[in-house]
Amino acid sequence: xxxxxEAITVSEAVDRVMNYKKRGEIEEVSFHECDGRRLAEPxxxxxxxxxxxKSPYDGFxxxxxxxxxxxxxxxVQLKVIEHIGxxxxxxxxxxxxxxxxxxxxxxxxKGATAVEMFxxxxxxxxxxxxxxxxxxxxxxxQNIIEKGSEIKEGTPxxxxxxxxxxxxxxxxxxxxxxxxxxxxxxxxxxxATGTELLDVDEPLEPGKxxxxxxxxxxxxxxxxxxxxxxxGTLEDELESSYETIKEALRKVDILITTGxxxxxxxxxxxxIYEKLGAQVLFNKVAQRPxxxxxxxxxxxxxxxxxxxxxSACYVGFELYTRPIIEYALYSNRPYLPRIQAKLTxxxxxxxxxxxxxxxxxxxEGNEVLVHLAGMDKSNVVTSLARTTSLMVLPGxxxxxxxxxxxxxxxxxxFAGQEQF
Amino acid sequence: xxxxxEAITVSEAVDRVMNYKKRGEIEEVSFHECDGRRLAEPxxxxxxxxxxxKSPYDGFxxxxxxxxxxxxxxxVQLKVIEHIGxxxxxxxxxxxxxxxxxxxxxxxxKGATAVEMFxxxxxxxxxxxxxxxxxxxxxxxQNIIEKGSEIKEGTPxxxxxxxxxxxxxxxxxxxxxxxxxxxxxxxxxxxATGTELLDVDEPLEPGKxxxxxxxxxxxxxxxxxxxxxxxGTLEDELESSYETIKEALRKVDILITTGxxxxxxxxxxxxIYEKLGAQVLFNKVAQRPxxxxxxxxxxxxxxxxxxxxxSACYVGFELYTRPIIEYALYSNRPYLPRIQAKLTxxxxxxxxxxxxxxxxxxxEGNEVLVHLAGMDKSNVVTSLARTTSLMVLPGxxxxxxxxxxxxxxxxxxFAGQEQF
Lengths: 420, 420
Hints:
The structure is a homodimer. Chain A is an alpha/beta fold. Chain A folds into four domains: about 10-25 and about 185-330, MoaB/Mog-like domain (Molybdenum Cofactor Biosythetic Enzyme, Chain A), CATH 3.40.980.10; about 30-50 and about 155-185, Alpha-Beta Complex (Molybdopterin biosynthesis moea protein, domain 2), CATH 3.90.105; about 60-135, Molybdopterin biosynthesis moeA protein, domain 3, CATH 2.170.190; about 340-410, Beta-clip. Helices cover about 15% and strands about 30% of the residues of chain A. Chain A has helices spanning about 10-20, 165-175, 215-225, 240-250, 270-275, 310-330, and strands at about 25-30, 45, 60, 75-85, 100, 115, 120-125, 130-135, 155-160, 180-185, 185-195, 195-200, 210, 225-235, 255-260, 280, 285-290, 295-300, 300-305, 340-345, 355-365, 365-370, 390-395, 405-410. Chain A has a six-stranded mixed beta sheet, with no helix packed on it. A six-stranded mixed beta sheet of chain A has the order 14-11-15-19-18-16, sandwiched between helices. A five-stranded mixed beta barrel of chain A has the order 20-22-21-23-24. The radius of gyration of chain A is 32 Å and the shape is elongated. The two termini of chain A are about 35 Å apart. At the A-B interface, helix 2, strand 13, helix 3 and strand 20 of A face helix 2, strand 13, helix 3 and strand 20 of B.
């Protein structure tokens, strides 16, 4: 008896899942442990930048007014009264006829109204004292970077949800964020179903395959910014599977199962959702691969029933689970970036449903090209190793040809997109 | 006294550094700990895929020859003698007039020469025994995925140097790579120089700034795939700085210092290279920012003297240090991907030297656009937080305009490129 399921569109499925989106709890994490995570609050400038008037060059701080009338052949001579490096505070105040030797980044001494570069001054020693002579007039304020001229204290600099990369790290350091507010990583339980599954360290047996989906999904969970708990493999047996899943739900924020959602005789997930009292949000989507992708909800907790087919499983995670995770991490762009690219080979299949094809992109000039990652058999796990994008061919379309512009979702980008 | 240095081109500088490239030592790492690292050896298929003849559908395994002559209104009837799920071995051999109920992924039973889907068979029970009736002829081999039809044992699947992402993980699992051969992460020491530097948790003081470069570089080191040791901050004092650096060189594969490479009075790195007996590969590059970037070599060990200016420091790492690290990790594409993009705003400055501008890219249609990440003052640390690419404007060029095509290096991509 084949159960009849009603297929919904991919965007309807995304919406049904995202109805349950919520922001994660916030935790405070050491600056030294925050790489690759996402900010839960915006970063503000905690001080003016620069926080003092400073010199952009190695040179001499002086009073511009002392150079009035200076010209070629008519030098003014200034006495060098101090010598300061970056980080050393000037001790003296410049009086008329005086200058202070100053290094890049150093604070402008009191009394100075300009800086002139080494190259434009002539240094000399008179009676053991250092002097400079200058044969041109200098403008008030020349070569002084004023306090707050780059950024005023309190300015918002980086928005919540931004992933912490080296450039963000530099800002956090500059503004003294010794701890950073981040969303706690959602904990995602991963369970593989199927009696045919061997573990990665087991030798092959007739009729069996090694479990690749669960580990692939764990890796996708981490890429999305969450934490995984690999719960294990379930045999195709209802009662024990039900107990394991019920127990797992107590330990995780989100539960992913792979396999068991189809309409085969050993596909137990539909019965398990029913026994749990979970509300099935959908169990058929007009997409290939992954039409049997199922999402259920129990007291606000989401259960993702991904297909046991590796490509379908991969696609299901990226389409439905990843945005929930990224939203929990305060991203305002939780969806995969969708761009257009030029197809580099014919794709002659018809697309009765929206098709997601394993692809990778390259660039030529400023055009984006998209290439098939391998044979488009949904059971070819190895082409996933070359996949950095998913080509989206809308349902109801005919064959696509080399040179056609197609939509592409970028799976290895952290840029995100506001809408699906 | 300003020392006169001779500037070399960026590509000459890259070449001088890459003369010292070497592959890293190989270590064997658990499958469970390999995410985000790079393969030191290619991944091979350790078995045929599939490793047995298997069914792509839920249906019935049967002898195609038994359906000869079947047609609408002229059914053949087959007795269902067994029922097998994926991972369960068929116990019986199909004889004439028999069929076995079989699930997706299950091994084809002996004697069967084809599989027919549930939907195309009519199931019935006669005297308590299960039968199917079929009203069409079936071709030999139909719906049987043959052993090795996807991949033959021994086929190279993923090349050395590939970064391990979820798709690669799936292949490693499928082929039983319970341990994976990876290059040991190069250990990169990071030292900041400058008396003006405060740590991230210290309150601002007059004349001082917080150290952002060192932490930014540590984060860049990790992004490139290496491991950092943050050694600390040096005061502008020759003897103690020399001792610290000499000691550090014993503990690391590569040493990065930030600051102290210019020609200011407190720039100690040139004297330290001399005292160490290190060979300076270059100390001036025709680029902005980062013209003072210095690389030295001592007994095959590289010392990167990056500028103290945050942008220059960032650029120097990405141009010169990152490819050395990625090559050590067995990448054959150790350079940043260089693409072209359409400039979205005027950039009126002249470019006496090759200029690297902090930018980020977006897409419109299948075109790549490039945007300035912020004010292009080399001291504006915050624009680095938006930087995902570096726009390259060749030396000797004039103002660029909105709509111009420009070269762009992608810093947040792991795709790499063979040539600089």
